[in-house]
Design goal:
The protein is an alpha/beta fold. The protein has helices at residues 11-22, 33-38, 52-62, 83-104, 139-157, 180-192, 214-227, 244-255, 280-286, 294-310; strands at 2-6, 26-31, 45-46, 66-69, 109-113, 127-128, 162-167, 170-171, 199-202, 208-209, 212-213, 233-236, 242-243, 260-263, 276-277. It has 2 domains: 2-170 and 213-236, NAD(P)-binding Rossmann-like Domain (Rossmann fold, 3-Layer(aba) Sandwich); 172-209 and 240-271 and 292-310, UDP-galactose 4-epimerase, domain 1, CATH 3.90.25.10.
């Protein structure tokens, strides 16, 4: 299949392109004009989901067989500072994508990626299934709920092959350092090569999160695009919650450093209890299981961070 991938230059987008190529598909990478201009060697098509007419013209010109919609704003805390942007890009932007596909290539399959955030961050300690209530607790999550409902509504009302993925936190090489694992890896790497004093600045190390390797996540996306049931939503999660402290301990062990830990108030988020997502539906229907252990993911993240630090970036 020729697969249009929005947000192709982003963290998950780059891994998605590799997953598609490795499995016989032809990716059609799309990202914002400014991002494409900054990396012309990447061979990415310039497109903006907020330009409805322009995005429809792009779809009409390239006529993809499928679409994985990854483009959007992803850093949850920032949604409190820029709620209008998050509603527009993560909500209205999805409408523009679905309309372009519906009008120009109605037979194309579409996977819209929302988030585990749709279930809320003060959820029950019980494992959450796809039919559990949605209870968003921040502007980012509200926009994702809208995108989630809209995608499944289009599938039902127009009888189109559209479906939704709800991934839990994912980590892996190449993630922005605004996210916890990449932040720890960069700080530890700088200490290991002598470019920083042996101090790690952290938020709440006792918070628990369920981390899934991004390469496992994009494999799930590819399977859903190939064989997922239209109109359905699918959780994607390793279902192995760990304390954030465990990540830091493993990074320090990998690097062979013993830094002092300093808590920074700016890094501490309000105490919450994000749900543990069931991955049973994905396992039973598509045979998906996580292939990367947490330790392997962290080793790869650290190796990526170390190379970046050594290169001076």
């Amino acid at each position: 299949m020729k697969v249009l991938v929005t947000g192709a230059l982003g963290f998950a987008g780059r891994h998605m392109l590799a997953e598609l190529r490795q499995n016989g598909h032809e990716p059609l990478p799309v990202d914002l004009p400014a991002a494409v201009a900054a990396q012309p060697e990447a061979g990415v098509v310039a497109g903006n989901i907020m330009d409805a007419a322009g995005f429809r013209a792009l779809v009409a010109a390239h006529r993809p067989d499928a679409c994985v919609h990854l483009g959007g704003l992803s850093f949850v805390p920032l949604s409190w500072e820029r709620p209008a942007d998050y509603f527009q890009v993560n909500g209205q932007g999805v409408f523009h994508v679905l309309e372009a596909l519906r009008l120009e290539v109605p037979a194309a399959r579409a996977l819209v990626v929302t988030s585990a955030e749709v279930y809320g961050r003060f959820a029950s300690t019980f494992v959450v299934h796809e039919d559990s209530p949605l209870a968003p607790t921040n502007p980012y999550a509200i926009a994702k709920v809208a995108a989630d409902h809209l995608t499944r509504l289009y599938a039902r009302h127009y009888q189109l092959p559209y479906l939704v993925a709800r991934p839990q936190n994912h980590i892996g090489p190449g993630q922005a350092t605004s996210f916890v694992a990449a932040s720890f890896a960069e700080q530890v790497a700088r200490i290991a090569v002598g470019r920083a004093t042996p101090v790690i600045r952290v938020g709440d190390l006792n918070a628990e999160r369920d981390f899934t390797d991004v390469r496992d996540v994009v494999r799930a996306y590819r399977l859903l695009l190939e064989r997922g049931r239209p109109g359905e939503a699918y959780n994607i999660a390793a279902t192995r919650p760990v304390r954030v402290r465990a990540l830091l301990d493993l990074f320090c062990q990998i690097a062979g450093v013993q830094p002092r830990i300093e808590v920074e108030s700016a890094r501490v988020r309000p105490t919450d209890h994000p749900p543990v997502l069931s991955n049973e539906k994905l396992r039973v229907e598509l045979g998906w299981q996580p292939q990367f252990t947490l330790e392997q993911s962290l080793r790869d993240i650290y190796d990526f961070a170390l190379r970046a630090v050594q290169a001076g970036s």
